[in-house]
User: Which sequence fits this backbone?
C-alpha cells in the first residue's frame, strides 16, 4: 500500500511537471522571433500506479514529465525544402535574364544612353549612311561617314559580346561562392550531428541543436536539392534496444551523399586550362566542380537537380541542348619517339587524328558552330585533348554508279559532314593505341546538353548573325572595284579565290595587328587554322583597318571605279541585304529582324523565369504558413498556456499545503 506521505509525493510530481511546462512556455515566448526556432512542448503522462491490495485496485502516483519535444511535421519540411530548391533555381535565372534583357534592349527608352541594334543597323547604317553613300558614292567624306557607321555596328556586337562574357564571369564566381557555402554548411551539420548524439545518448532531446541543424538544411535547400534521412542507431548486443543516437544523412542533387553522420564530403572548383573551352565564345577559366574524395565531376544540371547552383550552371553553360556530338568513323595512327623508364628513346604508335561524323544542323552549318579551336573531347567517359580540327562537307557517292546519292526528301545530293580532330600526342602516350583504334563507331562529345538558353546560346546567335551578314556583305563588295580601279576579289585561272580585301573582317584576339580576310570562306573543307568565317565572332567583328584608313578602297560599283565614280550599283545591291532573305536569312527572318528574334528568346526566358519565381514565392509563403502553424510559436497560445500551467502549478502547491495540514493534525494533534 502507499506510504502515509504519498499525497505529498503526488503534489510534488505536479509541481515538477508544471514547473517544466512553465519554463518551456517561457522558452517558447523568448524565441518567438528567433529564425528557425521550433515550438517545444512538455510531454507528460500519469505516473505508474501502485498496487494497494485493496478492493479499489491501484492508487495513482501523480504525473511524470517524459520529455520536452519539438512540435514539427516532417512532411511540411520536405515540401518546404523541395520548393526552396525550385525557387532558388528560378530566382537565379530571373536575376541574370533581366540583365541580358537590358543588354539587348533597344534605345526606344529615352533614358537609355547606349544605342540599340535597330537604331544602329536600320536607321544609322542603312537609312542614313547607305542612302547617303548611294547618292554620293564618289564623295570621300560620305565614304568616311559610312565606314564610321559600319564601325558603330561592329562595336555594338563587340560590346554585347563583352557584356555577356562579363556576365558569364560573374555567374562563374557566384558558382564558386555557392560551392564554398555548401562546404561550410556541411561542416556545421557534421559537427551538430556529433553534438546532438552526445546529448541524446543520455536520454534527453537536443531540441535547440536540432533547430540549428534544420535551419542549415533550409539554407542548403535553396542552393541544391536536398534529401534528409535519419536512422536510429541500435545496440549491436541488443538489437531491440536503441541507443538514443541517430545516423543523420544529407544527400544532394538526387542522391549524392554530402553528410553521413560525423563525416562530410567536400566539393572544390577547378579552373579550366587556358584554351580548354567548351564553347568558342566562353570566358577563359570557367570552373568545373569535383568531389574531393572521389575526383568525380559534380554537375547539378540533371532532371533530379534543382536550386541556385543549377540555375547558375544553366545561365553560364546553357546551350539550348546544342552541343557537339557524333559518331567516330575513323582513327589515324602514327609512330612517335618517346622515352622509356630508363630514358632510352623508343618508338610507339599513337592515334593522331580522329574523324567524327555529325548530323544535327547546328553542327553541319559551320556558321552556327560554337566549337572551340582547342579543348577536350569525351569518348566513352575518357577525355582526350585536341589541338585543332578540320570541318569537311562532301557529297555521298554511290560506289556502284560513282554518282551522288540523292536525298528523297530534299531531292538534293545527300551530304556527309565530318570533323577531324588533331589529338595531342603527349595526351595519348599513356593510352594504349589499340584502345583508341577500337573507338570506331562509338560516340564522342564535347561538353554536354544543357536545356536552357544561357550565355553560350546568345553568344552563338550573335556569332551566327555576324558571320552570315559579313559573308553576304563581302560577297557583294567582292564583285566591285575600288576608287583606284582595283578588283577587290582576285582569282586564279581556274576561278579559285586568291585574295579578297573584305569589308568586314575578324580581329585575331591574339594579335591586334592581324586580321582574318576569309580567303577560304566558301570552301567545303575548313580548318581551325584557315582564314575562314569560323574565325569571326561577335567579339572579333570589325571593319577592315585598310578600308578605315582609306575609304577609297571600298567598292561602290562593279564597273571601272576610276572612270565611274558616281556609279552605285554595288551600294544598291548592298541595300538589299537588309530585307532580302535570298541574300541573308537568320532563323527564317531577314537581317534587320535580328533584334526581334533575339529579344523574343530573351523576353520569353525572362518572363518565364520571373513567373516561375513568383509562383514558387507564393508556394513558399503558403508552405511556410502551414509549417509555422505547426512548429511556430503563437503568442496568444503561449499566453493561454502560461495561465493554464500557472493554475495547475498553484493547484499542486495547494494540494501540498492541504496535505501538510492533514499530516500536522495526524502527527501533532491526534492521540494527545
Assistant:
Amino acid at each position: 500500500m502507499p506510504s502515509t506521505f504519498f499525497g505529498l509525493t503526488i503534489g510534488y510530481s505536479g509541481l515538477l511537471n508544471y514547473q517544466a511546462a512553465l519554463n518551456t512556455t517561457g522558452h517558447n515566448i523568448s524565441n518567438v522571433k528567433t529564425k528557425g526556432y521550433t515550438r517545444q512542448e512538455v510531454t507528460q503522462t500519469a505516473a505508474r500506479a501502485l498496487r494497494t491490495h485493496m478492493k479499489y485496485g491501484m492508487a495513482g502516483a501523480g504525473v511524470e514529465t517524459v520529455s520536452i519535444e519539438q512540435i514539427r511535421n516532417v512532411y511540411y519540411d520536405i515540401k518546404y525544402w523541395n520548393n526552396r530548391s525550385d525557387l532558388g533555381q528560378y530566382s537565379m535565372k530571373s536575376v541574370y535574364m533581366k540583365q541580358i534583357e537590358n543588354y539587348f534592349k533597344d534605345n526606344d527608352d529615352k533614358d537609355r544612353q547606349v544605342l540599340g541594334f535597330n537604331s544602329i543597323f536600320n536607321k544609322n547604317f542603312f537609312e542614313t549612311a547607305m542612302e547617303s553613300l548611294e547618292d554620293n558614292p564618289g564623295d570621300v567624306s560620305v565614304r568616311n561617314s559610312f565606314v564610321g557607321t559600319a564601325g558603330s555596328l561592329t562595336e555594338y556586337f563587340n560590346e554585347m559580346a563583352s557584356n555577356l562574357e562579363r556576365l558569364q564571369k560573374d555567374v562563374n564566381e557566384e558558382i564558386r561562392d555557392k560551392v564554398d557555402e555548401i562546404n561550410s554548411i556541411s561542416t556545421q551539420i557534421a559537427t551538430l550531428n556529433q553534438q546532438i548524439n552526445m546529448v541524446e545518448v543520455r536520454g534527453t532531446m537536443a531540441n535547440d541543436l536540432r533547430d540549428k541543424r534544420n535551419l542549415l538544411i533550409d539554407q542548403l535547400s535553396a542552393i541544391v536539392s536536398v534529401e534528409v534521412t535519419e536512422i536510429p542507431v541500435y545496440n549491436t548486443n541488443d538489437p531491440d534496444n536503441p541507443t538514443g543516437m541517430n545516423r543523420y544523412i544529407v544527400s544532394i542533387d538526387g542522391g549524392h551523399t554530402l553528410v553521413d553522420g560525423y563525416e562530410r564530403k567536400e566539393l572544390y572548383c577547378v579552373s579550366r586550362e587556358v584554351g580548354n573551352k567548351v564553347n568558342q565564345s566562353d570566358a577563359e577559366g570557367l570552373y568545373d566542380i569535383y568531389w574531393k574524395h572521389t575526383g568525380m565531376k559534380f554537375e547539378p544540371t540533371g532532371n533530379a537537380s534543382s536550386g541556385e547552383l543549377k540555375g547558375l550552371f544553366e545561365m553560364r553553360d546553357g546551350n539550348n541542348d546544342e552541343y557537339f556530338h557524333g559518331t567516330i568513323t575513323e582513327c589515324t595512327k602514327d609512330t612517335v619517339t618517346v622515352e622509356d623508364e630508363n630514358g632510352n628513346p623508343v618508338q610507339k604508335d599513337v592515334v593522331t587524328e580522329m574523324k567524327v561524323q555529325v548530323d544535327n544542323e547546328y553542327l553541319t552549318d559551320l556558321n552556327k558552330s560554337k566549337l572551340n579551336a582547342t579543348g577536350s573531347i569525351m569518348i566513352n567517359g575518357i577525355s582526350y585533348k585536341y589541338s585543332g580540327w578540320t570541318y569537311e562537307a562532301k557529297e555521298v557517292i554511290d560506289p556502284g554508279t560513282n554518282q551522288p546519292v540523292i536525298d528523297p526528301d530534299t531531292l538534293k545530293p545527300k551530304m556527309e559532314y565530318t570533323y577531324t580532330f588533331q589529338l595531342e600526342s603527349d595526351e595519348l602516350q599513356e593510352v594504349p593505341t589499340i584502345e583508341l583504334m577500337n573507338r570506331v563507331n562509338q560516340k564522342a562529345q564535347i561538353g554536354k546538353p544543357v536545356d536552357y538558353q544561357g550565355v553560350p546560346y546568345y553568344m552563338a546567335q550573335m556569332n551566327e548573325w555576324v558571320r552570315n551578314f559579313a559573308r553576304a556583305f563581302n560577297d557583294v563588295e567582292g564583285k566591285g572595284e575600288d576608287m583606284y580601279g582595283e578588283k577587290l576579289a582576285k582569282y586564279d585561272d581556274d576561278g579559285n579565290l586568291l585574295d579578297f580585301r573584305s569589308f568586314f573582317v575578324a580581329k585575331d584576339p591574339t594579335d591586334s595587328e592581324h586580321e582574318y580576310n576569309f580567303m577560304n570562306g566558301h570552301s567545303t573543307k575548313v580548318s581551325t587554322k584557315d582564314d575562314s568565317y569560323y574565325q569571326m565572332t561577335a567579339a572579333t567583328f570589325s571593319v577592315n583597318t585598310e578600308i578605315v584608313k582609306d575609304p577609297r578602297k571600298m567598292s561602290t560599283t562593279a564597273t571601272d571605279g576610276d572612270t565611274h565614280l558616281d556609279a552605285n550599283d554595288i551600294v544598291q545591291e548592298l541595300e538589299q541585304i537588309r530585307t532580302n532573305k535570298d541574300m541573308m536569312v537568320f532563323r527564317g527572318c531577314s537581317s534587320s529582324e535580328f533584334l526581334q528574334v533575339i529579344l523574343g528568346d530573351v523576353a520569353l526566358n525572362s518572363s518565364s523565369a520571373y513567373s516561375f519565381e513568383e509562383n514558387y514565392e507564393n508556394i513558399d509563403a503558403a508552405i511556410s504558413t502551414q509549417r509555422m502553424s505547426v512548429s511556430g510559436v503563437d503568442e496568444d497560445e503561449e499566453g493561454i498556456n502560461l495561465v493554464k500551467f500557472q493554475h495547475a502549478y498553484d493547484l499542486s502547491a495547494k494540494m501540498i499545503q492541504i496535505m501538510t495540514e492533514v499530516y500536522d493534525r495526524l502527527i501533532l494533534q491526534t492521540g494527545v
The radius of gyration is 38 Å. The chain has a mean pLDDT of 89. The first strand starts at residue 40 and ends at 46. DSSP finds 14 helices and 25 strands in the chain.
